Amino acid sequence: xxxxxxxxxxxxxxxxxxxxxxxxxxxxxxxxxxxxxxxxxxxxxxxxxxxxxxxxxxxxxxxxxxxxxxxxxxxxxxxxxxxxxxxxxxxxxxxxxxxxxxxxxxxxxxxxxxxxxxxxxxxxxxxxxxxxxxxxxxxxxxxxxxxxxxxxxxxxxxxxxxxxxxxxxxxxxxxxxxxxxxxxxxxxxxxxxxxxxxxxxxxxxxxxxxxxxxxxxxxxxxxxxxxxxxxxxxxxxxxxxxxxxxxxxxxxxxxxxxxxxxxxxxxxxxxxxxxxxxxxxxxxxxxxxxxxxxxxxxxxxxxxxxxxxxxxxxxxxxxxxxxxxxxxxxxxxxxxxxxxxxxxxxxxxxxxxxxxxxxxxxxxxxxxxxxxxxxxxxxxxxxxxxxxxxxxxxxxxxxxxxxxxxxxxxxxxxxxxxxxxxxxxxxxxxxxxxxxxxxxxxxxxxxxxxxxxxxxxxxxxxxxxxxxxxxxxxxxxxxxx
Length: 481
Known about the structure:
The chain is α/β, with parallel strands linked by helices. The protein has two domains: 3-239, Rossmann fold; 240-477, P-loop containing nucleotide triphosphate hydrolases (Rossmann fold, 3-Layer(aba) Sandwich). The chain has 15 helices and 19 strands. The protein has helices at 43-51, 75-78, 87-96, 102-108, 122-134, 138-141, 150-162, 180-193, 295-303, 325-331, 337-342, 349-354, 369-381, 397-409, 427-442, and strands at residues 3-14, 17-28, 33-36, 62-65, 82-85, 168-172, 198-202, 215-220, 223-229, 255-266, 269-280, 285-288, 313-316, 319-320, 332-335, 415-419, 446-450, 463-468, 471-477. Strands 5-6-7-3-8-9 form a six-stranded mixed β-sheet, with helices on both faces. A six-stranded mixed β-sheet has the order 15-16-17-12-18-19, sandwiched between helices. Strands 11-10-13-14 form a four-stranded antiparallel β-sheet, with helices on one face. Strand 1 (3-14) and strand 2 form a beta hairpin.
């Protein structure tokens, strides 16, 4: 069997840590691989090694590429026929805050650069047109990237990887941020191209692997612990986060937030239209909607970090505008992709978590003894002991998300907004988080959860809203779903 990629006794050290340990692996012709493993196990690093974008230790280990049957050690050649999509790549593009239209992101995949530095020829332009049409990207391919939702940007990055028609497609948590229709469309497309492109995919959700997968590997502590033929099991996680018996809120509980006649714009685009909505204490609420519907904008409106256009009436905790945003942050915690993108400080994780007390990006004062004790307790409660003392910027995507969740909970909020925070989280952390949220809701915290997947709603929501076409509507009252 012809091997397309071969790893021979690969080791990788990053920031003094032994991240990949003596890994040997082969991608053969006709094989499609799924990789599983907890956060920080080394999955993302291994995928970068396969794609040729990660340096390996100079200790005799080799990676060999054989796209045409001839063994080559030159990593530079791999870039011409291997494409990579990752959560870190997504964060990089989001931080650039580009004014470029989405189509140019797709076009940049032709030469694998950030920008398009030349005019595409007719065949290349036709290839971009085909990708835009195939994934129904026309509605936002002309809009500036900075105005797109997280899910829309992720769809563009997948399209960017596919436009070169790679022989090997490496996808790391690629479904993060995709709504159900987009996810199903991409998975179906991957099955159709599996005859011409090898798939190498890592995910925490077994249901997000395409049917074409032929082999599964498990990564633990930087080692390739298990390998075998077949797909990962596709059972749902509901049993691991079984809901507790949550009681419905009192009929006239305290009004926490009331929004009346609110329009919200992102740039020149009106994202939300005439929103009328309220949240009472204990009314744990789920928000649904497709990519670009305005869910994250709505979350920011609730939290007070995004303003409505003139004419809206907004009441938070009995007060009307103007609001002191820092006082709101003491009572409303909000975890989102935007927070993770903004938090670029290279501090120890204890400092990042402690920054939740002032709700600052970065820690600018020494925590009190009481605050340090609270951080220590939360680290243990959420199973983050292995991250103690490590630098935030050196963590994996999922590990950084765990730390930011802890940051938001270090001071128990009255309202906790979870905006697609389950993306990239392993099952063990989900269980710990669910237990903590159950305890918090019993103590008076009200949850607002934004999720594309029902398994992420944790069985704690009473109301479900859908945002569509800029409007919000109540779908159902939900209890212990």
